[in-house]
């Protein structure tokens, strides 16, 4: 398996799709990277030469923030919002939707508010022994 940015990309997929296995690279960015490298997007990942793999690694490392560094950057942004106490930071702290979604009917799983159906107030009698 070719290894780029610390991730084993699948061999049997086209390189355009295989690059999306790296956190921070989507389809459009993968297309940009392949265009810079001069590699056809329809080539399978297993048929890339070592020079092409090294070129891909070099382009990704120099120009883009991916994987651990990107995750760290996102975590630091959220921590900054929490520390300054802004609205978005408070929503992150409470575990509620941050981007203005309604919480009245949907987002029960996000809120941890799973409602149970109401039954009669009587408990079932204990089973005889």
Provide a descriptive summary of the structure in words.
- The chain is mostly helical.
- It has two domains: 3-64, Helicase, Ruva Protein, domain 3 (Orthogonal Bundle), CATH 1.10.8.50; 68-99, no CATH class.
- The chain contains six helices and two strands, in the order E-E-H-H-H-H-H-H.
- It has helices at residues 15-18, 27-37, 50-63, 67-84, 87-94, 108-111, and strands spanning 3-4, 7-8.
- A hairpin with a 2-residue loop joins strand 1 (3-4) and strand 2.
- The radius of gyration is 24 Å and the shape is elongated.
Tell me about the biggest sheet? 2 strands, antiparallel
How many domains?
2
Please trace the helix and strand order, writing H or E for each element.
EEHHHHHH
CATH architecture of the largest domain: Orthogonal Bundle
Number of strands: 2
As laid out across the biggest beta sheet, the strand order is 1-2
Gap from first CA to last CA: 62 Å
Annotation field: number of helices: 6
- At the first level of CATH, the class of the largest domain is Mainly Alpha
By secondary-structure content and strand pairing, the structural class works out as mainly alpha
Mean pLDDT: 87
Approximately how much helix is present in the residues?
Answer: 40-55%
The Cα radius of gyration reads: 24 Å
Shape category? elongated
Q: Could you please say which CATH topology of the largest domain applies here?
A: Helicase, Ruva Protein, domain 3
Share in β-strands:
under 5%
Uncertain runs: none
